[in-house]
Amino acid sequence: MEVSSLTAAPSILDGDNYETWAVRMTVHLQALDVWEAVEENYEVPPWEPIQLWLK
């Protein structure tokens, strides 16, 4: 099974690679469409269990 580069996890932050890691993590979270959760003033939408059944 081939892994898409858009969903592959970025490298691990080891203390010496912050600049590269930060860029890769940003792109990774944007590809997963969750980057907005990192931005300021983000409000968590209410969780409704019924939505899980409707998918």
Describe the protein's topology.
Elements (H helix, E strand, L loop, with lengths): L17 H14 L18 H5 L1
Organism: Vitis vinifera (Grape)
Pfam family, one: DUF4219
Protein name: DUF4219 domain-containing protein
Report what the structure shows.
This protein has 55 residues and is mainly alpha-helical. It has one domain. Helix content is 35%, strand content 0%. The chain is built from 2 helices and no strands. It is elongated, with a radius of gyration of 15 Å. The mean pLDDT is 80.
Sheet with most strands: none
How would you state the average pLDDT, rounded? 80
* Overall SS class: mainly alpha
Share of helix, binned: 25-40%
Tally of helical runs: 2
What's the structural domain tally? 1
Cα shape: elongated
Strand element count:
0
Strand content: under 5%
Instruction: Give the CA-CA distance, first to last residue.
Output: 25 Å
How much is the radius of gyration in Å?
15 Å
Stretches where pLDDT is under 50 for at least 5 consecutive residues are none
Organism: Vitis vinifera (Grape)
InterPro entries: DUF4219
Protein name: DUF4219 domain-containing protein
Domain DUF4219: 13-39
